[in-house]
Prior knowledge:
The protein is built from seven helices and two strands, in the order ββααααααα. It is mainly α. The chain has helices at about 25-45, 50-55, 60-80, 85-90, 95-115, 120-140, 145-155, and strands spanning about 5, 10. The longest helix is centred in the N-terminal third of the chain and has 22 residues, at about 25-45.
Amino acid sequence: MMQIFDISGPIKPKNENESLFPSLSFKERLMGFAFCSFLGYFIQILSFGSFLKAAAGAPNIFALTYSLGNILALFSTAFLIGFRKQFQNMVDKERKITSIIFFSSLVMIFLSVYLFKSKLLVVIFLLVEFCSYTWYVASYIPFARDCIKSCLRNIIKQ
């Protein structure tokens, strides 16, 4: 089994059951990450095939497939760092509000499609999901949030 290293040396889980799949090797974790990432982004790309229908007033299929792609892409990183660590990262002070907004928008999209049957709500929550997912991903990239803020300020000024 391969070991993961950081600057201080090999990384060992505090508890072997810290991961949802503790018996997976590093290679299997990479394969899980690659598969979920590929599938998630592939589904997101496929969802744009129904984008014209969404623009024409039928956003449900686009919203559901796009959301499923986001969930799989988010799920993929948990294979690398473990599901407990992924959850801890999502609720740390820098990402907590964004995570709550993201998951709330996912729930609201599904409720808007199946319960409320409101196309307007689907579109609104889809935009909220897109923005919150972008903000969440940007939190992992140094200075990305600052860059986004700067771009938005420049757009608003014009």
